[in-house]
Amino acid sequence: MPAQVTLIGGYLGAGKTTLVNRMLRAAHRPFAVIVNDLGALPIDEALIETRSAAMVTLTNGCACCQIGADLSLQVDRMASQGFDWLVVETSGVARLSRLMVQLMQLPGIQVNSAMAVVDGLRIEQLLENPWVSEIVEDQLNAAQLIVATRAFPDWRSTGSLWHQRTKFLEAEGALPDWIWQTEKPLEVPSPKGSNKPEFQHRAVTVNPSMDASDLERFIMSNPQIQRVKGFACLSGERYLIQSGLGYCHIELSEAVGIDGVQFIWTGSKVPSFEQITSPPE
Predict the structure, then answer these.
(1) At residue 174, what are phi and psi to the nearest 5 degrees?
(2) Selected residue with higher pLDDT from 191 and 201
(3) 5, 12, 145, 243: least buried by Cβ within 10 Å?
(4) Residue 238, pLDDT above cutoff 70
(5) 207 pLDDT band (50/70/90 cuts)?
(6) Residue 236: how many other CB atoms lie within 10 Å
(7) 27-52: average pLDDT
(8) DSSP 257-272
(9) What is the pTM of this model?
(10) Alpha-carbon distance 112 to 115, whole Å?
(11) Who contacts 127 (Cβ-Cβ below 8 Å, separation ≥6)?
């Protein structure tokens, strides 16, 4: 019997990792989680709580267009270890259509569910952003189920049929039954878009003499930055940093692990990382 695969996609900061955490806590049977992490640091692994599942962090970039062989190897490895259910959390900048095609070509694998997580308060802004709208639309079009967090999106201005596949997920409480329901995709989506990487990424260690407000100013003053995620020691205290379009959260953290912050940005203008990594003169 083929191993069942659930794909969880969605743009940066939509709530994919939070959903995986909730699924792990509520799992009625063991399953393996495969997390694709853009950049050199396994930041998502540090944030996901493994309860009744195995955690595998992939390397070298976006799963759907840069590390196909590695992803295939990890899926096959987890299936060979006896897991009959695999959950793949994609990179926030992954084209869901390409990843579905890639996995459907693997022997012994059946993609039963593909969902896209969207932040209902930010999705309209993303669809209007010329840098990211094509990727977001690919994720929405390829998904069988669109999981809305924070608010139910107003799809009326898009002229799409996305509302027919959208369900709202409450932030607390038991996961609804429809999260667990799976069905075999009827059609393989046609991958679209260029193979050229559209995003750049870098993992840095922040200068420990900085304070949280300095780091926040740096992030917010670089509008090309799409996502920031990681841990840093600032002025003697450890912080969790999470930032996306229009927001920046820097909070004290008691988590133990690797210090490092991962930046993802669009375009050719590289943020001046020397401002946050080099000691001030």
Answers:
(1) -70, 145
(2) 201
(3) 145
(4) yes
(5) very high
(6) 8
(7) 60
(8) S--EEEEEEESS----
(9) 0.69
(10) 10
(11) 133, 136, 137, 158
